[in-house]
Amino acid sequence: MYEDLRPLLFSIAYRMVSSASDAEDIVQEAFLRFHRESGKGADIESPKAWLSTVTTRLAINHVKSARVRRERYVGTWLPEPLLTDTESEGARHAETADSLSLAFLVLLERLGPVERAVFLLREVFDYGYDEIAAVVGKSEDNCRQTAVRARRQVEAKKPRFEASRQKREELSSRFFDAVAGGDTEGLIHLLAADVVAYGDGGGRAPAIPRPVHGRERVVRLFSNIGRPSARLGVSRMSQLEVNGQPGAVFLDADGRPVLVVSLDIADGLVQTVRAISNPNKLRHLAPMADDD
Predict the structure, then answer these.
(1) Which of 1.20.140.160, 3.40.630.30, 3.40.50.1370, 3.40.462.10 would CATH assign to domain 2-157?
(2) Overall average pLDDT of the 58-76 stretch
(3) CATH fold group of domain 165-281
(4) Gyration radius of the chain's alpha carbons
(5) What's the mean per-residue pLDDT of the chain?
(6) How far is residue 292's CA from residue 289's CA, in Å, rounded to a whole number?
(7) Which pLDDT value is given to residue 231?
(8) CB-count exposure of residue 156 (10 Å: 0-12, 13-18, 19+)
(9) Residue 97: predicted pLDDT
(10) How many Å apart are CA 132 and CA 184, to the nearest integer?
């Protein structure tokens, strides 16, 4: 049962809390509570429904407390990244990879904890309103109204992504090759005029102190990337999918990830760059062996 239900529960928890390590803790706690109740002789008719409910409620409580901690966060806050592929547990239960993207997770921060739960359970995981009502302890009508409000907020700001996965990967490869090669001219042709770059170091690692807007400024940023890369101890780079979108992981000499970058690509151009160097948000990523 654990292996069967864990991917779904992790998918719900991660999208709720935007942290792989916290999502793991929430799922573990949900299973502990399940076994505790089962051990007492409780007749749990549907383990999936019971565990989904507990996982979501734990995630709601986590989001409420995280909002207070977030007020003291140093610099730009970004979600904890996942390295994904088509079979990854984070993406397995989503209709598309878009609901896993860093852009989408940042957008979900606009929603209240219960709003976020209702929206995700309905729009991403296709739960019925009767099921959602039981999970969040509201009436079905209330959940319908909440879902409509949340959907309206999300649709107004929903990020766009290049439909063709092949085009995204090709442009991403050209982007990182240009960055690595210091090809300023090449970068100019790959970036949207209103491109934005974000960096999250959490006050613990070199990062962009505030968002950088516009093609020229972002090109200058990447033209001077050598110094922060050296401070991070970057030894090599591996292009990988990050949260369902093209990206790259920058590794130190021991193969430990020290920087993860995700790209939002639409209309054949890079629209947004998100770079996470906060070591607390990279601890869950395993060291990578050199393929060479």
Answers:
(1) 1.20.140.160
(2) 89
(3) Nuclear Transport Factor 2; Chain: A, (3.10.450)
(4) 20
(5) 91
(6) 9
(7) 86
(8) exposed
(9) 64
(10) 50
